[in-house]
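Problem statement: downstream parser choked on a complex file, so we are re-checking the raw output for the iron/sulfur cluster run. The parser issue turned out to be on our end (a line-ending mismatch), but while we're here, posting the original submission so the record is complete.
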Amino acid sequence: MVWFWILLITNESIIMCYAIPGRIEAIKGNRVIVDYFGEKKEAINELKDLSIGDYIYAQGGYVIEKVPSDYALSVLDLWRESFFNLQKLDMSLSSSVLPRDGVDEKLINILDRLIYGGSASRKDIGYILTISDKKSLDYIYKTANFLRQKHLKNSCCVHGIIEISNQCSCACAYCGISSLNQGLRRYKMSVEEAVKVAVDAIDRYGFKALVLQSGEPADKDEFIEYCEAIIQGIRAHKAVFLCISFGEIGLRGLERLYKAGARGMLMRFETSNENLYSRLHPNKMLASRLEHIRYAIELGYLVFTGALIGLPGQTIEDIVEDIFLVRELNAEMYSFGPFIPHEASLLSKASPPDRDMVLKVLAALRFVDYKDARILVTTAFETLDPEARRRGLLAGANSVMLNITPLEYRRLYDIYPDRAWSETGVEEQIESTLTLLQSLGRAPTDLGVR
Ligand code: SF4
């Protein structure tokens, strides 16, 4: 197989494609059925002039843009061979023949049920999270990987994240950029700067889905206006799936940014345990967080949500509830990462969880939602374990995020210490990601749609 991924050389710049053009097979109201080399997916469509037979890019479940047929066919030609070769490699790495020697019997029974289409109960997931022997752990990860491949094939979302500001008015006990950290230099990109970084990510690197992130603003109105200008500025230039991650900006704020063109919202609830939530988030309530998440879904946002793993005071039962809460919320993507103590935070003396607990949670998310879930390998996990991306993708995950914030700002987005990729240029991140995905038989595309 040619080692190149899909590099299109246009006007002397190299574009890496994170999406494969699909052909519209059917249109049903605001939903379209899209064909990708024989695989059918459904997407939400807001374009007015779409007809059967047109080619489109879809990302995160939304039709992003219509693409000219001759361009689409040339991209599909480039993809054709590698698409099927990658699928073959992925299938061989996620084999259904799982070695059972020495594996916990009860675990085998639970996972067999899932393999044959059953569902996991809270008790099952609680049991899985207590497993600690190596053979059984391997069995958990391999089963999660098998279920991912069986139901969702080999596509892996590759999103870019831009941290537009590290200003924050909150005092979350685990966070290094909370308002309590008075020693941190604060920044806020100008509208023009943020638009330029996003446009570069789209034009130069081919990103089709971007997350815009910041701390939670003190002056919400002023901040919403600023974000509207950024979102409109990006959308005026290019079609892209834009996801916001700004904390609790208020329900009107969500409405305004949806109107401006945002279609995704990343907001973790961090823990489903109300008491723990209140202890970690002074003057905040879990109910308000969940209200934001539910309202965003009602408005039409695709929601990425999840929790922290290993918070001081968190129990296995709490983590089980976190896992079932994201399922109940019907979130589009699950984002669960380890708690990592920051020296300037209130939890500076606490310890992070061990690697296997994080992997077990990723696998458990796959077990409760094996047909649909996009599960992210978080940067926090990559900070805890340099092999996290590979291990996570082989334990049920199918999504990664690259940090494309300019380096001078990225260093200041200091939510936990020694963040993975905090000193790595965008090209290097892309190369490393694509090399890894290729070695695992994954296509860096988001065919996905529920
Ligand atoms: S977790 Fe988010 S809201 Fe909380 S202090 Fe950190 S940046 Fe602010």
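For whoever reads this later: The pocket of iron/sulfur cluster is lined by residues 168, 170, 172, 175, 177-178, 215-216, 247, 415 (CB under 6 Å).
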